[in-house]
Amino acid sequence: MTQEGTIVSDNPVIKKGARITGGERTTLADDLKAKYAQGASIRALAAETGRSYGFVHRILTESDVSLRSRGGATRGSRKAS
């Protein structure tokens, strides 16, 4: 359930733009880590928590998560047939 300026999910309510430190940051990092490991994208996690892509990316890298490479088609040379 989303309310203006707040996100309500499995996490405690996080106000948009609020600093997240200490135990709350550790709890959020553990939750994001688990969801990312289950296949959620950084963009999906950012939308779910109401935080920016950069914030979620930073939390995951601070937690020593091995990030997946970007998906989609690659722009390499085609194999000759």
Tertiary shape = elongated
Low-confidence stretches: 1-9
Order of helical and strand elements: EEEHHH
**Termini, distance in Å?**
53 Å
User: What is the CATH architecture assignment?
Assistant: Orthogonal Bundle
Domain module tally: 1
Secondary structure class reads: mainly alpha
Q: What spatial order of strands do you see in the largest sheet?
A: 1-2-3
Number of strands: 3
CATH topology: Arc Repressor Mutant, subunit A
Helix segment tally = 3
Taken as a percent bin, the fraction of beta residues is 5-15%
Averaged pLDDT, please?
81
Rg, alpha carbons: 16 Å
Short description:
Residues 14-75 form the Helix-turn-helix domain. InterPro entries: HTH_58_Actinobacteria-type. The chain has helices at 22-37, 42-49, 53-62; strands at residues 2-3, 6-7, 14-15.
Topology:
Elements: E1 2-3, E2 6-7, E3 14-15, H1 22-37, H2 42-49, H3 53-62
Antiparallel strand pairs: 1-2, 2-3
Characterize the structure shown.
The chain has helices spanning 22-37, 42-49, 53-62; strands spanning 2-3, 6-7, 14-15. With 81 residues, the protein is mainly alpha-helical. It has one domain (2-62): Arc Repressor Mutant, subunit A (Orthogonal Bundle). It has a three-stranded antiparallel β-sheet with strand order 1-2-3, with no helix packed on it. The radius of gyration is 16 Å and the shape is elongated. The termini are far apart. The relative contact order is 0.14. Mean pLDDT is 81; it is low at 1-9. It holds the Pfam family HTH_58. It comes from Quadrisphaera granulorum. Residues 14-75 form the Helix-turn-helix domain.
